[in-house]
Amino acid sequence: LEHTCRDHEEYLVRRSVNSPDDDDNALMSGHALMASCPPISHVKNVPAQQGGLIPTYDHRVPDAEMRTLQTLLNMSTAIKSEIPGGQVTPVMALQCLRGHRNYQSLTRDDVL
C-alpha cells in the first residue's frame, strides 16, 4: 500500500527535518504516519542523495505489533480532516481491507 510513495517519501521527510522554521517545507503530511517512513535518525545520519530524491532508506515495513498499527491508525484518524481530497493513509486502507468480509481469503495478488 505504501509502494507508490517510496519515490518521494524520503524527500518529504528530509525537507521537513531540514526546514524546521519554514512552515510550508516543515510539513511532512501523512507520510510521517507510514510504516515504511525513514526514521529521523536515518535522515540525520545518512547523507541525502540528490537532495533526497534518491532514496537511501531500505523502504521496508517493519514487523509491527498490532499495538503499533493501532497507534498509527488512531493518529491517521485524528488528522483525517486535514488530509485533502478524501485521501487515506496506508494504515487506514489496511484497516478498511481488514474489515471486509472476504479479508481472510484475500491473497497478495488481490490487493496489488
Instruction: Return the average pLDDT rounded to an integer.
Output: 77
Give the helix tally. Answer: 6
H and E order: HHHHHH
Strand content: under 5%
Percent range of helical residues: 40-55%
By DSSP, the count of extended strands is 0
How many strands, what sense, and barrel or not for the largest sheet?
none
Distance between the termini: 8 Å
Low-pLDDT stretches are: none
Query: Radius of gyration from the CA trace?
Result: 15 Å
Shape: globular
Q: What class would the helix/strand composition place it in? A: mainly alpha
Topology readout:
Layout lengths: L8 H10 L4 H4 L13 H6 L20 H14 L10 H9 L9 H4 L1
Short description:
The chain is an all-alpha fold and 112 residues long. The chain has helices at residues 9-18, 23-26, 40-45, 66-79, 90-98, 108-111.
Report what the structure shows.
The protein starts with 8 loop residues before the first helix and ends with a helix. It is globular, with a radius of gyration of 15 Å. It contains six helices and no strands. The chain has helices spanning 9-18, 23-26, 40-45, 66-79, 90-98, 108-111. The mean pLDDT is 77. With 112 residues, the chain is mostly helical. It is 42% helix and 0% strand.
